[in-house]
Amino acid sequence: MNLSDWGPDKKCPGADKADAVLAITQIDTGKREELDRVCFDQAEWLNVALSGDNLFATRADAHQTTSDVILFNLLDGSSRQLSQSLDEPATGLLAAQGAWVAWDTSGGTLLYNTASGNHWLVSPSEQSGPLQYPSIDGTWLYWTDWAADGYKVVVYDMQQKEMVILAAPGDNEQVWEPYIYGKMIVWERSLQIDQANGNNFLEWTKLPKSALPATP
Fold it and tell me: In this structure, what DSSP letter does residue 118 have?
């Protein structure tokens, strides 16, 4: 979790300034541990994603439009920067599953495998439209940005490195909030989006046949 600490024990001087804290809580014991604490006017922790014993977090310095992606190993307490070494700073959300982590960049979505070090950029195309807010499920990378005009339901097979467009909005429509479960993907289609009482429907389909689970 990322927290703002305004309490009396904060390090940041002044009543109008808080500490930006990155912390974890072990659910079965209730034990809480701080991984980092810094004055809010120096830096801010934004997004977190947990995969096994690896915690990924985005850290933005003051007045910075992009963020560093930091990997924390919760077993040995070590940490290292990912985005700076790859020269792909984060501009939005990140997601993680297994050895994979993905984050928004100015040029698309950066995919990185922590086990092998393999990484590549998945860039949007004219056909796919905007690709933001990544999610990972098995071999699939997909995006959940619902605010962008012309957004489509797009999935990317990380094993085959192939992109598939599954749904597109019609006139005065919006498709959004896709979610993968098993071999199915579901999303919402909103009709008459310019009206307050427009209709919403759920649509779903089987995912395209994929290769074996993604390997490093």
Answer: -
